[in-house]
Amino acid sequence: QVQLVESGGGLVQAGGSLRLACAASGTIFSANTMGWYRQAPGKQRELVATITSRGSTNYADSVKGRFTVSRDNAKNTVYLQMNSLKPEDTAVYFCYALWNRAYWGQGTQVTVSS
């Protein structure tokens, strides 16, 4: 059974940085695509960034230039480096991974204070 476990969320002041990590267990195969989504209170879940097994990345316009997604295929782990954080980045961040189907992590809270 594949499981995704996130870490690295927390409280940070505007302008600060955080790094999220998500490790997949229960499989020896690298995911086709891994990445991050987020959901703020009262809003729909939205894409933040994804990265394929070959390293192709995709970012939401709102985070381009501030966030960087990366992965370690050998460890089946995806990272999200978040810099220049803004209060509007406050949300629960969910790890995402795609093999034959999509899997989701339990979510980690990121709170950016102004």
Q: What does this entry look like structurally?
A:
The protein is built from no helices and eleven strands. The strands form two sheets. Strands 2, 4, 5, 6, 9, 10 and 11 form a seven-stranded mixed sheet that branches. By secondary structure, it is mainly β. It is globular and about 40 Å long.
Report the principal-axis shape.
Answer: globular
Give the helices and strands as they follow along the chain.
EEEEEEEEEEE
* Overall helicity: under 10%
Span of the ends, CA to CA: 40 Å
Number of helices: 0
Structural class: mainly beta
Integer-rounded radius of gyration: 13 Å
- Sheet with most strands: 7 strands, mixed
Low-pLDDT sequence parts: none
Q: Percent of residues in beta strands?
A: over 45%
Overall pLDDT, averaged?
95
DSSP E strands, number:
11
List strands and helices in order, with pairings.
Layout: E1 3-7, E2 10-13, E3 18-25, E4 33-39, E5 46-52, E6 57-59, E7 67-72, E8 77-82, E9 91-98, E10 102-104, E11 108-113
Parallel strand pairs: 2-11
Antiparallel strand pairs: 1-3, 3-8, 4-5, 4-9, 5-6, 7-8, 9-10, 9-11
